[in-house]
Amino acid sequence: MNKDTLYMELAIKEALKAKAIGEVPIGAVIVHNDEIVGSGYNLRESEQRSIAHAEMIAIDQACASMGTWRLEDSTLYVTLEPCPMCAGAIVLSRVKRVVYGAADPKGGCAGTLMNLLDEKRFNHQVEVTKGVLEDECGNMLSDFFRDLRKKKKAEKTASKNLQ
């Protein structure tokens, strides 16, 4: 098993923590010199904070553990392609490389809608590797949203039956 697969599996484990508490299952880990220096999973609904994305939490943790805001020579592994906010934080924290699982056709800023990570007008560009464990990451998200729709439909039906 190569390192990208190994670390993406750890990001998936982070995503499963989010799923277990009813959050959208997105997870991230940051690796520096073959050591995990930060990890996180989506907490946006639980904390009602728009910035509580897996990547943002992992970046914050990595900065604290490394004692610097510069995460040079680090790789961020995330189960879903970063959004504009997370892509900006990745560039600003000088992450060297991003590896993601599933593409995000609605908000992906690492190559799908645009590529903020390779924007030449910024003073830092980030290498991108996409599609690592793509099926596992994508299916986890698809299953979550399918189950959520079923739950909401069942609740709506139950509410109508009570009336």
UniProtKB/TrEMBL annotation:
GO MF, any single term: tRNA-specific adenosine-34 deaminase activity
Described purpose of this protein according to its UniProt entry: Catalyzes the deamination of adenosine to inosine at the wobble position 34 of tRNA(Arg2).
Subunit details: Homodimer.
Protein EC: 3.5.4.33
Domain of life: Bacteria
Record's cofactor remark: Binds 1 zinc ion per subunit.
Cross-referenced SUPFAM superfamilies: Cytidine deaminase-like
Keywords per UniProt: Hydrolase, Metal-binding, tRNA processing, Zinc
Catalysed reaction, written as an equation: adenosine(34) in tRNA + H2O + H(+) = inosine(34) in tRNA + NH4(+)
UniProt-recorded name of the protein: tRNA-specific adenosine deaminase
Positions with a binding annotation for Zn(2+): 53, 83, 86
Residue numbers annotated as active site: 55 (proton donor)
The keyword Zinc is assigned to this record: yes
Cofactor(s) the protein requires to work: Zn(2+)
